[in-house]
Amino acid sequence: MTKSICVVGLGYIGLPTAVMFANHGVKVHGVDVNPAAVKSIQEKQLHIEENGLQERLNKAVDEGFLTASTTPVTSDVYIVAVPSPINPDNTANLEYVRQATASIVPFVKKGDLVILESTVPPKTVENVMLPELVKSGLEIGTELFVSHSPERVIPGRIFEELVNNDRIVGGISQKSAELTKELYETFVKGEIHLTDATTAELVKVMENTYRDVNIAFANELAKMAEKLDVNIWEAIKFANYHPRVNVHFPGPGVGGHCIAVDPWFLVELGGEQAQIIHLSRNTNDSMPSFTAQKTQAILNKNGIAGATVGAFGLAFKGNVDDMRESPSTIVIDELQKLGLTVVSHDPHIKQNKHETQTQSMQEALEQADILVFLTDHKEFRELDPATLNVKSKIVFDTKNCLNREVWEKAGFQFHLLGDAKN
Ligand code: SAJ
């Protein structure tokens, strides 16, 4: 069985993966270019929030199965889990993948396995990784094994999903895929399906694009809802009672480092052929401005000028502390462009992450002429509006996370994105 693993990139995916192997008795060395991240891991301080991560990290470090530094060490397996973001012009930035691969080249030896976990455009293993790995002098596929094993876990439930989700493993040779399967069987209880590297790359990007296109469909319908005089949330709920229908939900935009990013990989590769994908990206990207305009329309209707907007929720989705590509921050930008003042609060985001943040929820409630809920955090769902000490009783729910009846009973004027009844 495997003796040692070097995990390059200790972020949202690399760290939980490293910890998971370490908790299963595998010797793991984690590498990150950020010395602060390395130091915090060595000291068992988390730089990211994830259910169950702290306990597992403590165990891994205390038992001596997890070490960390800023440079790779000689191992039997190398797992690359680094960011693969998009550039300002929406093209893929594969520089981190290339650099991480280059960093392990001096260490790889005959019989080693290199696995890419990052989500990447199809052909990245072939066109970006392999040209670096050949510099080791080893024959790829027979002396050095290479595969793509994309992570498929959802932030907030990473550990549960790491174990239970099926995994797609694409090897550049059959042996590469088989060795990777064997490795992940250390903790994966889901099925592990084998294919080639490019198919695995496409599958992963397809999954997130499916979600993006489906959400764009819901957002388009939400925009139409007012003209149609319907509540789109109710309509979607009814449509989803059909056994073969699964319409996703509208909102103030699509955020995170995956769903708002990966479809651009296909747009770049597909060009003219990627029409639905491209349009969906643009539709979802139009939602923050739609949300801001609707906020202003509500204020105008109430005759409130020079207003202060209370934006509740800065994270890109409910119950996580992650602000990457968060639509909330774009909604805030759009509100400010409209000349509105914004104060914000998020129970999951530490102070001073955004210039509009107040010290407490109470401070924001006391200043806001309208309460706009942008993230469906549990803390917001559980609010009791009857007990809130507010300046204004106008609320705009963009995630259908509040109970209209309860809020109206507490005297609030209630507005819901995608609902004609306002
Ligand atoms: N959103 C909507 N409407 C919906 C669902 C989501 O507006 O009906 C928004 C969310 O609010 C958020 C964004 O979309 O801003 C993305 O959230 P998400 O929960 O759909 O996805 P992520 O980015 O947290 O995780 C996804 C997952 N992919 C799929 O479900 C196909 C996860 O399994 C992947 O591992 C992850 O991307 C990744 O790393 O690629």
UniProtKB/TrEMBL annotation:
Residues annotated as domain UDP-glucose/GDP-mannose dehydrogenase C-terminal: 310-404
Signal peptide positions (record): none
Keyword Cell inner membrane attached: no
Pfam families to which the protein is assigned, alphabetical: UDPG_MGDP_dh, UDPG_MGDP_dh_C, UDPG_MGDP_dh_N
SUPFAM superfamilies the record matches: 6-phosphogluconate dehydrogenase C-terminal domain-like (SSF48179), NAD(P)-binding Rossmann-fold domains (SSF51735), UDP-glucose/GDP-mannose dehydrogenase C-terminal domain (SSF52413)
Keywords for this protein: NAD, Oxidoreductase
Family per record: Belongs to the UDP-glucose/GDP-mannose dehydrogenase family.
PANTHER family listed in its UniProt record: UDP-N-ACETYL-D-MANNOSAMINE DEHYDROGENASE
Annotated protein name in UniProt: Nucleotide sugar dehydrogenase
Organism for this UniProt entry: Solibacillus merdavium
Lineage summary: Bacteria, Bacillati, Bacillota, Bacilli, Bacillales
